[in-house]
């Protein structure tokens, strides 16, 4: 989205080649964990890095009351998606976080998607800001926010809180209620993220867990489930006080069908197999 918004064709950026900048560094290590496009080198283009910095500097120069919440959230999302770090990025996150906290008009106008993007950006880069998370959590449980929040936004918000180790019981229960009231089937990524979040912070919500477990094994939903989502659900089930073994068995059967080429036609990876075996072993141990 950032490439298209800034009018920078990915192919052109890729040709620029990598370049190091101490104030806006490319992510360390390999690109295996980045989105496919970024792993191909888009994130390392010096031109993109310069344009991103100039764009951020422009936002900083504008009077805070004239900057839209979407511009704040989109910028943080883009920096996190590209995996950038450094002193300048630290400054951007600090200033934008402070603006959201200290300007009531900014918080009031913040849409659920934008709040989710801010939370996700902080969690993805491991940037802890308890005050900001608490304020955004309170914002998301307000009636005007709950009325418009989507399941994907719920799942990523809860994932962000769990990733940072910040359980907010009211937030988890209120947003869980949004999922329980959702009339349309939930996709497996939403189910996986929410179950993972619940298990990670040890938040008990039996009705929500039961509903998500049933949704995870719905044949129509399961048919489109990817290995990572299934492995995440298995992990979460194994961490629960009372894992649903029937659910786990059906998920493992789904993985085995994939491995035999009878499902989506994609062989199970060693990592997927290891995750499934670990989950089954832990669940069996808890029953002993």
TrEMBL record:
One MF term in the entry's GO annotations: RNA binding
GO CC terms: mitochondrial matrix; ribonucleoprotein granule
Single GO BP term: mitochondrial RNA processing
Organismal lineage: Eukaryota, Sar, Stramenopiles, Ochrophyta, Pinguiophyceae
This protein's name: FAST kinase leucine-rich domain-containing protein
Residue ranges of the region described as Disordered: 9-40
